[in-house]
Amino acid sequence: MNRFGYYDPTSVQKAVGVVPDHTDARYLAGGQSLIAAMKLGLAAPSDLIDLNQIPELRGIRLEGGGAAITIGAMTRHSEVADSVEVGARIAALASLAAMIGDRQVRNRGTLGGSVANNDPAADYPAAVLALDATVITDKRSIKSDDFFKGLYQTALAPGELIKSVTFPVPKKAAYMKFKNPASRFAIVGVFVAKTAAGVRVAVTGAGTRGVFRAKAMEEALAKNWSADALKSVAVQASELASDLHASAEYRAHLVNVMARRAVAAA
Quick check: is 180 in a domain? Predict the structure, then answer.
């Protein structure tokens, strides 16, 4: 691991204020991905800006009389999983958080870190996209359809910091995943949601460009919200990833299976 500078600011203003003079700096949230990448020599930031001492980045609060839930970027996975507010209003989101990694990961990893990293097999991006969430940064608000740009790529500008994510409460929702038995990342994960604006289906772990919406499934469920409505809806294997964990064809099969299970659960 290379040498690096270290900062532990106590406010968002102080955190983003470090960036202009340290353009190769990286924000440190839970560190579950960044520290591992640094150990492997895949990342070599000049400085780490530790966000763990910033209280305004943590917490869960209701918005609009309970119509939405805003979760701070530094809120741990375990806190989302155990939240009474999240469990009562978006049980699928609490369930998703409880599926992430193991206890050590859930007690260290954060919502904001996962969303900013946008790992193609991560769980949270599917929830953000399916629930039509809004990512709130120190500069602006970004809708989910505009946020995810590809493998490990997002709409975040250099130095832009996620402060929180606001999730509208859906009418129905569920998340199902076929997990890697070692890492517990999603080989395929499908989040389905019936929202005020319509049906949304997001798939993680399968796409060659990361998380994506399954539009054909959305159209089928808009007409008939049932698992049976998806039986004949196929995802093209040519659009999916193939690796040592699963072929594209197998992932295409799993997308349909996980989607139907999610709809049944919702």
Answer: yes
